[in-house]
Structures are given as C-alpha cells and as structure tokens.
Write a structure and sequence with these properties.
Largest sheet: none
Bound molecules: adenosine-5'-diphosphate, magnesium ion
Protein name: Dihydroxyacetone kinase subunit L
CATH superfamily: DhaL domain
GO molecular function, one term: glycerone kinase activity
CATH topology: Serine Threonine Protein Phosphatase 5, Tetratricopeptide repeat
Oligomer: single chain
Distance between the termini: 9 Å
Organism: Agromyces agglutinans
Helix content: 55-70%
Keywords: Kinase, Transferase
Order of helices and strands: HHHHHHHHH
Pfam families: Dak2 (PF02734)
C-alpha cells in the first residue's frame, strides 16, 4: 500500500500489453460496430512494441522515464485516433510526475488528471461524447476523491479502474459526437465505445500492478 516506483510503472506496461492482447478481438469487434475495426490491432501492436523496449529501461529509471517511453512508442506505432490520444496522455502523465522516484496518492491522482487533460487537449471531446474521455473523467474524479480521503496509491488506482469500467459501460446508450463513430450519428447508440473500454482495461492494469 506504499508509494509507487518505476517497478510499478514497468509492471503497468507488462499488464497493459497482456490485457490488450487478451482483449484484442473484443476491442476489434467493438470498433467494427461503430468504427473501422482496428482499435484492438492498433493497441496490441503499440503495447507489444513498448514491451520490446522494456529491456532498455535503465536501472535507475523513474516512473516518469517509463511513462515517457510508453508515450513515444505509442505515438510512433499505434496510429489512428488512439495513437496520438494515448501518446499525449502518457506524455502528460510523465510530465506530471517529473523526476520523482516514488509516487504517493496525490501524485497518482494528479498523473491521471494530467493524462485525461492531455486527451482533451488533443481530441477536444467533452463528457458524454462517447469517447475514451467517458472512462477517464470518472476515473480522475474517483481517484481525486480517494486521494483526498487519505487512501493508498493502490486504492486510488482501484477506484479509478472501477469508475473507468462503469464509465465505459455507460457509453453504450450514448450517441457519438467525436471520432469515426460520430459519422454514424444515431446508429452509434447501443454500442460500447472501444476507446473507453481499452482505457478501462489500461487503468485496471495500473491498479493490478499497484496491488502486488
Ligand atoms: P480510428 O478511429 O482512427 O480507427 P482507433 O480505432 O484506434 O482510431 O480509436 C478509436 C477510439 O478513439 C474511439 O473509440 C474513441 O474512444 C477515441 N477517440 C476518437 N476520437 C476522439 C476524440 N476526439 N477525443 C477522445 N477520444 C477519441
Ligand atoms: Mg478504429
Ligand atoms: Mg483506424
């Protein structure tokens, strides 16, 4: 239940790659319903590439170094809408944690907020637009509330993951107003947003890595 170091960030990467691989077909199917069907493929390629670079992480690396590696790798390998959006999220998260070796609850909550703000800065989506923001914003709010009541970093991330999962599910009745799914208008209703679902998986991976 203590502060989180680079070992946590590395484990987050490993678990992210594993969950994206595990849910690859599901994410492809979700994206096929309201997009072009490549979301699972794009992310699997991206996190596979990050995994391949973990050996180059220096022994004295900080969580911020790992987050920056994720950012640059996703930006150059994922493509589509999600590549630059996730890339910006991890880049802002890296900037948020600076060169701290260990992250307390407040730093973890702030990291998530910075990531969400990066996605908004890049994609201009608002809550309810049926995008990954509908997973991230509830996660950020739950994390801030947990940190505020003195919860551990692991508890902060668990609350964020729970809120993101609920937020992803809650995209189903929404009409998409951003991204490729918005071309479908009313026909986007009744389908879960793939980016919101992948965001929920990534945040669950962060929580699981912290729970170890
Ligand atoms: P593409 O649509 O280019 O094929 P992906 O399939 O990889 O890209 O990613 C689609 C996901 O990206 C959507 O499910 C949505 O969550 C997210 N997305 C798209 N546009 C935006 C945006 N402007 N802001 C936030 N998220 C967005
Ligand atoms: Mg797509
Ligand atoms: Mg695409």
């Amino acid at each position: 239940g203590g502060p989180l170091g680079a070992d946590w960030a590395v484990d987050w990467v490993r678990r992210s790659a594993a969950t994206v691989a595990e849910h690859r077909v599901e994410l492809i199917t979700l994206d096929r319903e309201i997009g072009d069907g490549d979301h699972g493929e794009n992310l699997d390629r991206g996190f596979g590439a990050v995994l391949g670079k973990l050996d180059s992480v220096a022994p004295d690396a900080t969580p911020g170094d790992v987050l920056k590696l994720v950012a640059t790798t996703l930006i150059s390998t994922v493509g589509g809408a999600a590549g630059p959006l996730y890339g910006t999220a991890y880049l802002r998260a890296a900037t948020s944690v600076g060169s701290e070796a260990e992250l307390d609850s407040a730093a973890v909550a702030k990291l998530l907020e910075a990531a969400r703000d990066g996605i908004v800065a890049r994609g201009k989506a608002e809550s309810g637009d049926k995008t990954m923001i509908d997973a991230w914003t509830p996660a950020v709010e739950a994390a801030a509330a947990e940190a505020g009541r003195g919860a551990s970093p692991a508890e902060v991330l668990a609350a964020a993951a729970d809120a993101a999962a609920a937020g992803a599910e809650a995209t189903e009745p929404l009409v998409a107003r951003k991204g490729r799914a918005s071309y479908l208008g009313e026909r986007s209703r009744g389908h879960r947003d793939p980016g919101a679902q992948s965001s929920a998986y990534l945040l669950r991976a962060a929580a699981d890595a912290a729970a170890e």
